[in-house]
Design a protein that fits this description.
The chain is mainly alpha-helical. Helix content is 64%, strand content 0%.
Length: 237
């Protein structure tokens, strides 16, 4: 942006604000206290929406590729244009592939063992967030981006793609509701005890069912030891 200013060019303030908002939302979603409390299913879902949808959309609206093309040296600009028009870029940004990668990632995370594994391994937890961010950025680039894309889509095609992706996420939300009700572990170091856990409950659950009897007359003697022989828990005549 400084290069544009020196040349006398102007960059839209709205795009700069969109990029700044994306950075702020990402920092809030991944940093404490949100990032250290995503063992709570509600916090995790909010974090997922921010990282996979809101941040990518704001980045797409900020047009970073266009800014790079306008400020890069001539050689770097040629390399960037060649990458944008290359066959790998066209394949990786195919609408069907993007929808499958975005929706299937959510199914693998919430309906399979990946969520529990990510809760026990920090590197896998970070990879899940990276996958969310990259697939969300690619999909937002195709749907609402201001940058030149390898496969420009018409408005009708964008609407169809948006409906298909929304239907996939809606079905995922319905299928993952039972698991969300049970809860699941968060990242390493963010274990939260289940709602029924308490010192009393733990003591009762770990106490043997046949508690040893105290000698007769001992203060605090178990009532079962003073019961009639037929009802004695210790089996003492």
């Amino acid at each position: 942006m400084l290069r544009l200013h020196r040349r006398g060019d102007r960059w839209p303030v709205v795009r700069t604000a969109a990029f700044g908002d994306a950075v702020v939302v990402a920092a809030v979603a991944l940093g404490p206290p949100v990032g250290s409390h995503d063992g709570d299913v509600r916090v995790h879902v909010a974090q997922h929406l921010a990282v996979a949808m809101l941040v990518p959309l704001l980045l797409a609206l900020s047009a970073p590729v266009t800014l790079a093309l306008r400020t890069s040296p001539r050689r770097a600009r040629r390399w960037l244009l060649a990458a944008l028009h290359s066959r790998p870029a066209a394949v990786l940004t195919h609408p069907l592939l993007l929808v499958v990668a975005d929706v299937a990632g959510g199914y693998a995370l919430y309906l399979g063992p990946l969520y529990d594994l990510a809760g026990r391994h920090l590197w896998l937890h970070l990879m899940v967030h990276l996958h969310m961010l990259l697939t969300g950025c690619a999909l937002s680039w195709v749907l609402a981006g201001r940058d030149p894309a390898p496969r420009p889509l018409r408005t009708r095609d964008r609407l169809v793609l948006l409906v298909v992706a929304g239907a996939g996420h809606d079905l995922l939300a319905r299928l993952s509701t039972p698991r969300a009700a049970r809860g699941a572990p968060g990242p390493p170091g963010s274990w939260t005890p289940p709602p029924s856990s308490s010192p009393t409950a733990v003591t009762r659950s770990t106490r043997p069912s046949r508690w040893p009897c105290s000698p007769p007359g001992t203060p605090g003697e178990d009532a079962s030891c003073t019961a009639p022989p037929a009802a004695t828990a210790c089996g003492r005549p």
